[in-house]
């Protein structure tokens, strides 16, 4: 990077730390371009951490997992994700508050029921029943903002990806709409037309190609592979995704159905074994999600080479 650019970035950081609020507000306006100027794909392009809060940076064989403030600091480099992160934090507080209310109402219900049973005071059943109903209500209501919070986290990752891609392309004198890949098989692709993005929902995964509408990935995941066949490393990760997803579904569904069929005939040892099988299935689901994110990351990297 030219010495002049390094000097400008150092000056920007000094102004941001020492200047009054009006000058700081002016420096924030130029923060995205300055702080992304030295970004590479490996150091700044994030992917989701499977079923946990945080992000993953770097190639699959040398990835770094970041959580909490460290993850947010990366996503805030572009400033594009600020509003999504703020919305995420608001939704998390709502979920947490409703959870606390639900737990408090549950404690009230339990105490009232115990006292009513010991003293014979029938009127205590009123707060017991009311507390139980309130507990179920607040605990159920806490799930919606939590889901919205997770969606905002994914939004922040996606807009940050686009900002990093734009910065990398700008250094090459290209725009996101220009054919941007030096990989022959992707020579007709631009970031906007071919980049992949995935989301995980209660019903499975979706994939978005460029700016098109999301497509649902099938039950076994095979149909995702066609999107990454032109990049061998990504195709390999996609195969790992399919294998892990199939294993996860077979183990979890199989263990659940077996328990359902056995019912009261299941011995403690059998139940424990089936629960263990289900746990392995859940772990395979986490591996499938990680492989899916790796495939997308490896494919998108080729678009920026």
Biggest sheet layout:
3 strands, antiparallel
Oligomer state of the chains in this structure: single chain
Shape verdict: globular
How many DSSP E strands? 6
Based on secondary structure, the structural category is mainly alpha
Low-confidence stretches: 1-33
| Structure annotation, total helices | 11
Q: What is the CA-based Rg, rounded?
A: 25 Å
- Strand content of the residues, in percent? 5-15%
SSE pattern? HHHHEEEHHHHHEEEHH
Average pLDDT taken over every residue = 84
Query: Gap between N and C termini, in Å?
Result: 18 Å
Task: Tell me roughly what share of residues is in helical segments.
Answer: 55-70%
- The largest beta-sheet arranges its strands as 1-2-3
């Amino acid at each position: 990077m030219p010495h002049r650019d390094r000097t400008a970035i150092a000056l920007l950081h000094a102004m941001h730390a020492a200047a009054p609020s009006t000058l700081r507000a002016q420096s924030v306006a130029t923060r995205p371009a300055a702080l992304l100027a030295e970004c590479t794909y490996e150091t700044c392009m994030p992917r989701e951490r499977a079923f946990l809060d945080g992000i993953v940076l770097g190639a699959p064989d040398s990835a770094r997992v970041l959580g909490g403030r460290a993850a947010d600091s990366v996503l805030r480099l572009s400033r594009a994700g600020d509003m999504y992160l703020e919305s995420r934090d608001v939704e998390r507080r709502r979920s947490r508050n409703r959870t606390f209310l639900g737990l408090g109402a549950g404690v009230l219900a339990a105490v009232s029921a115990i006292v009513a049973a010991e003293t014979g005071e029938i009127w205590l059943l009123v707060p017991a029943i009311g507390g139980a109903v309130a507990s179920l209500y607040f605990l159920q209501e806490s799930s919606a903002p939590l889901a919205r919070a997770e969606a905002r986290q994914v939004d922040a990752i996606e807009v940050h990806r686009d900002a990093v891609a734009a910065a990398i392309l700008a250094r090459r004198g290209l725009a996101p709409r220009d054919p941007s890949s030096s990989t022959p098989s992707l020579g007709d692709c631009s970031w906007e037309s071919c980049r992949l993005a995935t989301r995980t929902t209660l019903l499975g995964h979706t994939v978005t190609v460029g700016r098109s509408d999301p497509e649902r990935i099938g039950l076994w995941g095979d149909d995702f592979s066609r999107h990454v066949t032109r990049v061998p490393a990504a195709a390999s990760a996609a195969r790992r995704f399919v294998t892990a997803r199939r294993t996860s579904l077979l183990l979890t569904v199989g263990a659940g159905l077996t328990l359902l069929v056995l019912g009261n005939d299941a011995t403690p040892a059998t139940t424990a074994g089936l629960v263990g099988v289900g746990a392995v299935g859940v772990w395979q689901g986490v591996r499938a999600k990680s492989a899916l994110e790796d495939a997308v990351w490896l494919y998108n990297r080729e678009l920026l080479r």
